[in-house]
Please model this.
Amino acid sequence: MPRAEPGISTVTDTETDSGIDDGIRSGLSRADGAVIAATLVLLVFLYGTFWGGTGAADLAHFHTADGREFSVPLDADRTLELRGPLGISVIEIRDGQVRFVASPCRGKQCIHAGWLKQGGEFAACLPNRISVAVRSRDRHFDSINF
Amino acid sequence: MASSKDPAGTQALTLVTTPQDHRIAWLAALAIAIHVAESALPSPLPGAKPGLANVVTLAVLYHYGWRAAAWVTLLRVLVGSLLIGTFLTPTFMLSAAGAAAGLAALALGSRIPGMGPVGLGLMAAQAHMAGQFFCAHALFIPHEGLFALLPVLMTLAAGFGLASGLIVQSMLPALQRSRTQRQPPQTSQAPQPPQAP
Model:
């Protein structure tokens, strides 16, 4: 790298001197403070966006044992009875949420999953081969890219 | 050697460059040692580690400029992955993506007048995490559920970036002293004995 030397020395001299002097003189510089403030804003934004309750689901997407796939909107309360190899699983839709109420499986993991209400949440009864995922309509296509 | 083939200028420059290369190699070795030692620490989350090797990167940035910092970082990622055994695995790709993003942030940040090591450390750590995250999302786990991890990962990155920034901040007087020692004998190759200021 015959050309590296001039590059290194110019970068060192022009870009780092001011930073070092400032750092020694006054602990944190104003630019440091700006970065810290921007970091806090970014973190608040991230928690608000990805952990806040923005993505309320409005669609439940079912897969059943016979290979059917269908979506049910969550705005109307209803109860679905879906047949699987073990028997009938009962699924309840109420107040924009969906849950397994009863299923003829042993572990009852699907029932313990509880209410699904945030877009992207998912519950399945693997023994009875029924799954439900809830989605928010505006981000409907985000989850089919894999 | 082989001066018949080389134009005269190249050889002169090569003589000047060599100690720089040695220095980069020494610093990279230091960064690699920290990198490898850290990889032995258990981590609660994939992608989260203290990144103390970035202390070396920041110090090199202050001492020798961005190019040297880039060299040290790239050598660390490459050799570190060879030593740990993750070369060309997803871990390596994430590491490389993060390093590239972090270096870009450092290039940007070191142009801002008055930017101290704390600001640079924060910027670099968060850029590193973001680069790593979007690499993971693009290549390995293209699922929107991954975004639920992003706030936690960025919080960790901010904490670790702040920590390494503060470490470098506390190193500044020593760095400054060795800089002024280095400056006057610009052409001499041997390290000078320490002189009391």
Remarks:
- Chain B has one domain: 15-178.
